[in-house]
């Protein structure tokens, strides 16, 4: 086992997304997996626990506290570190002593349940302070450090070995460059936050394609400590149409020596996180060269039994093709990318003679994927089907339409000829306000947005096909 997999190096899972929290049964299953795979930390921070964020001053009722206490006991039995996070930044008044008392009461309740480790999160909050707070502190960072240091000292008096974590308001490189939280925010945190407190960071971006070692080393100079990575690589709460079951990738093995830990904030749907978390565990333990794709394929083989159906069995080959269709935020897996490139050549490649071999290859692969989606309705593991259902239906619809168009073109239809489908009609297909709004601005490859060139089509309610 790699020396990185120590109890001081935090490795594991953040339940920190926006959306329905995981069930108690799902959390227990997660803890079993983590213990088996060598992960050591679970951070409780679901945004939809109202008392985590929206009404953070209120104590849990007895009925609400018991499930949390059960989670803490279960983690302890499996030698997992349970960390409770509180997010008071939406409306805290940093200069009010009463606010510190509210925070202490909240943490005292958790201490009484057996929790020993805590986090204060100041992410995704208004980038300003009340006038009364500004009179006492000249910076956002100083106010937050004061509150965090005070709570840290208070907790350490009661739990001497407590791990304490802090999430800054600018928690990625782009936010820092744009001076979220004010000028010199991170430098102030580096100076004023007690050195025993870990600081979260997501990398160059909120969802970082890569986290280079040099990027982290530069950050360490500002923070005066190793950052703790809150990794959103597999998070999907920002786009309900997608999920990510690709491997832990874009992070060099050397990164492990530059950070205080690697914690994944993954897909909202627990059933979809097997491969992301399995490959994270392998990355943490890896002692040789890291091959993300091979780790992915190995994890997919392990995941395959979850896809048992009441009908025709699912093959690993088809599962890989499907998984490649929902790979990572910035890339499709190779099998899905090959499918896309085939479709692109056939559909927008011009009016030249259709390549019959390319047509046959596309139709075979598209049909495999479409039929795989259809078989998902027969999954014995119903939570997995529920997590997949909307996505696989959308993918089936698109594949069905493309197959119809390729067939139309292979029979002599020209690129500019009228083509229609009785099953993909305006209003009901790619319809709705969100789709119409999305057509007004076109996202370019360089990240800029430009107005739609086809102004008439973009504004028509009945036009739902582009």
Give the rounded overall mean pLDDT.
92
Strand order of the largest sheet: 1-2-3-4-5-6-7-8
- Give the SSE string: EHEHEHEHHEHHEHEEHHHHHHHEEH
* Tally of DSSP helical segments: 16
- Estimate nothing, just give the exact number of structural domains: 3
Number of strands: 10
Cα shape: globular
Strand content: 5-15%
Largest sheet: 8 strands, parallel, barrel
CATH topology of the largest domain: TIM Barrel
* SS-based class: alpha/beta
End-to-end gap: 52 Å
Rg, alpha carbons: 25 Å
> CATH superfamily membership of the largest domain, which one?
Glycosidases
The low-confidence runs, each spanning 5 or more residues with pLDDT under 50, are 1-6, 461-466
Q: In short, what is this structure?
A:
The protein is α/β, with parallel strands linked by helices. The chain is built from 16 helices and ten strands.
Explain this structure:
The chain has 466 residues and is α/β, with parallel strands linked by helices. It folds into 3 domains: 10-290, Glycosidases (TIM Barrel); 308-410, STAT, domain 1 (Methane Monooxygenase Hydroxylase, Chain G, domain 1, Up-down Bundle); 425-466, no CATH class. Helices cover 44% and strands 9% of the residues. The protein is built from 16 helices and 10 strands. The chain has helices at residues 24-37, 62-77, 97-112, 131-136, 140-158, 173-177, 185-192, 213-223, 274-285, 292-303, 316-324, 334-348, 356-375, 382-410, 433-438, 455-459; strands spanning 10-15, 41-44, 81-86, 117-121, 164-167, 198-201, 228-231, 261-264, 441-443, 449-451. The strands form 2 sheets. It has an 8-stranded parallel barrel. The chain has a two-stranded antiparallel ribbon with strand order 9-10. A hairpin with a 5-residue loop joins β9 and β10. α1 packs parallel to α2, α12 packs across α13 (356-375) and α13 packs antiparallel against α14. The relative contact order is 0.08.
């Amino acid at each position: 086992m790699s020396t990185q997999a120590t109890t001081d190096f935090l490795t594991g899972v953040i339940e920190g997304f926006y959306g329905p929290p995981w069930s108690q049964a799902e959390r227990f299953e997660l803890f079993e997996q983590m213990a088996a795979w060598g992960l050591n930390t679970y951070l409780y921070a679901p945004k939809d626990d109202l008392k985590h964020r929206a009404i953070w001053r209120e104590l849990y009722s007895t009925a609400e506290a018991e499930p949390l206490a059960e989670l803490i006991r279960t983690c302890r039995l499996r030698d997992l570190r349970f960390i409770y996070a509180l997010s008071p930044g939406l409306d805290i008044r940093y200069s009010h002593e009463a606010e510190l008392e509210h925070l202490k009461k909240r943490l005292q309740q958790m201490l009484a349940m057996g929790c020993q480790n805590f986090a204060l999160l100041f992410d995704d909050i208004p980038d300003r302070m009340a006038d009364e707070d500004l009179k006492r502190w000249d910076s956002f960072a100083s106010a937050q450090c004061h509150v965090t240091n005070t709570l840290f000292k208070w907790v350490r008096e009661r739990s001497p070995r407590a791990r304490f974590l802090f999430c800054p308001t600018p928690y990625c490189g782009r936010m820092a460059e744009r001076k979220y939280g004010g000028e010199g925010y991170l430098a102030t945190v580096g100076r004023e936050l007690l050195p025993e407190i870990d600081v979260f960071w997501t990398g160059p971006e909120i969802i970082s394609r890569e986290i280079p070692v040099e990027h982290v080393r530069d950050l360490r100079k500002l923070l005066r400590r190793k950052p703790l990575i809150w990794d959103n690589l597999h998070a999907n709460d920002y786009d309900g149409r997608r999920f990510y079951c690709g491997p832990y990738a874009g992070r060099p093995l050397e990164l492990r020596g530059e950070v205080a830990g690697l914690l994944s904030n993954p897909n909202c749907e627990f059933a979809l996180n097997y491969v992301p978390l399995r490959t994270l565990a392998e990355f943490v333990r890896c002692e040789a060269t890291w091959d993300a794709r091979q780790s992915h394929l190995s994890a997919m083989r392990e995941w395959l039994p979850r896809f048992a159906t009441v009908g025709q069995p699912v093959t690993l080959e088809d599962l890989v093709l499907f998984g490649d269709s929902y790979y990572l935020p910035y890339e499709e897996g190779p099998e899905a990318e090959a499918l896309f490139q085939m479709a692109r050549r056939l559909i927008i490649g011009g009016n030249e003679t259709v390549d019959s071999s390319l047509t046959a290859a596309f139709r075979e692969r598209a049909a495999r994927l479409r039929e795989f989606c259809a078989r998902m309705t027969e999954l014995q593991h119903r939570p997995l089907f529920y997590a997949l259902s909307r996505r696989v239906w959308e993918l089936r619809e698109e594949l069905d339409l493309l197959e119809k168009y390729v067939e139309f073109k292979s029979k002599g239809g020209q690129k500019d000829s009228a083509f229609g489908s009785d099953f993909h009609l305006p209003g009901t297909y790619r319809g709705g306000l969100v789709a119409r709004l999305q057509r007004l601005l076109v996202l370019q490859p360089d990240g800029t947005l430009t107005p739609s060139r086809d102004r008439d089509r973009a504004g028509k309610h009945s036009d739902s096909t582009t």
